Amino acid sequence: MLKVAIIIERAEIGLGGGERSVSELAAELRRQGVAATILAAKGTSSENTEILCGDHAGKRVPLKVFEDALRNYLKKNTYDIIHSTLPLSIADIYQPRGGSYREAMLQNIASYSCPCQRFFKRRTHFLNLKRTQYLNAEKQLCAKTNATIAALSKYVKAHFQKHYHLPDSRIAVIANGINTNIKMEDDLITDLGRRVSLYCMFEIPNKQNMVSFVFAANNPRLKGLESLLNAFSSLVNQQKDIFPVLIVAGSKGLGYCDHLVKRLKLGKHVHSIHAERGIWTLLSGCDVAVLPTWYDPCSRFILEALAMGKPVITTRFNGASERYEHQKHGIILDQPDNIVELTAALNTFCDRKKIELASKAIVEDNLKEEVSIMKHVRMLIGLYDTIVARKEK
After folding, report:
1. Are residue 116 and residue 231 in the same domain, yes or no?
2. C-alpha dist (Å) from residue 282 to 158, 232, 308
3. 292 lies in the same domain as 153
4. pTM of the prediction?
């Protein structure tokens, strides 16, 4: 049986998409016959999870300290594949869940709407010591090791070629996947029932002419919430027969743009929920998922929406845009801050017939299977086998 160590900084599913992805990945690997163990610096230990720096003070463990702990652990425990989500020189496979650190930094700077803020961030980005440490480690890994980059999308592959000049032989595109076998507590409730329940939760009038959009992110600025609210304001002013509603989900809720909601007088149309835990139920009660992001290697949120048969709107800066067809299953935006383009996309799905056509196409083209963690893991095991065979030569 193939033995694989999956390295992650923290083993806490509640922290976000990356941690949840690794947990789902390890579980699916085991279902497909691979002995997968998660090695983390911090977090909660379990039968298949080892915590190596639990006694270290503070929430974060320096990369060098964690790597030293890993080396000591691996002296006593052997694995066929070292699969790391962190830029560590010991890795056989480097699969950054957040994409290239350099590209993420550049797009984070671009996401600030104020030119002065962008200038300031560009000049002071190196003051973020953790990010600088990881960026330098990623550069070293690409230049001085033979690790294979397992990119979550072609979008991410292009960044490693652009910033680190890696050849095709060093990069394998293993498209991101999600657990599509989620059992919701209200499985017996119809989609209409879920919409009614959602409207009651936010005290939204249950109108026949309502169309609901959902946005989910823990970094609302980077994921384009400001642009979305401006576009939504234009949509509300243009639509006379349709009542558009936007649900904002994430750890920060609307706090980031509360002032903008008030200034644009969107109180009746925009509502927030402070957690993503019920994202499947939330998606089932809404009509369209929207994420006008500045940077996303391959958004789980968009994949989850597709798995639910929901039309999606995102940007070309999201690797998940490679998983569906523009104007068939959803819309792909050229720029996150093009308010006219984003408003037009929202307007498209104020026509319920277009929502139904897109949903039908998603189901007919079996996108649920295409974005599943099962397919992702099958591709990953193929990469594992190639690397093991190469080692044996």
Report:
1. no
2. 33, 19, 11
3. no
4. 0.91
With contact defined as beta carbons under 8 Å apart, do 237 and 264 qualify? no
Question: How far is 154 from 156, CA to CA, in rounded Å?
Answer: 5
CB 95 within 8 A of CB 150: yes
Helix (H) / strand (E) containing 383: helix 373-392
Q: What is the CATH number of the domain that holds 346?
A: 3.40.50.2000
For residue 128 the two structure tokens come to: 């973020």
Do the domain assignments include residue 46? yes
The answer as to whether 184 is a domain residue is: no
Find the range with the poorest average confidence among 3-17, 38-52, 210-224, 334-348.
3-17
Per-residue pLDDT tens digits for 283-318: 888 899 999 999 999 999 999 999 999 999 999 999
- Residue 282 belongs to what domain range? 191-370
Measured between its terminal Cα atoms, the distance across the chain in Å is 19
C-alpha distances (whole Å) from 257 to each of 242, 260, 333 are 24, 5, 22
pLDDT tens column, 159-204: 999 999 999 999 999 999 999 986 554 444 445 545 556 666 666 6
Average pLDDT over the chain, rounded to an integer: 89
d(C-alpha 288, C-alpha 310), whole Å = 6
Alpha-carbon distance 96 to 108, whole Å?
Answer: 17
How many domains does the chain divide into? 2
Note whether 171 and 294 are same-domain residues: no
Does 214 have pLDDT greater than 90?
Answer: yes
Q: What is residue 178's DSSP assignment?
A: B
Residues recorded for the chain = 393
What share of the chain in percent tops pLDDT 90? 66
Token digits for 37? 């163990």
Residue type, 251: S
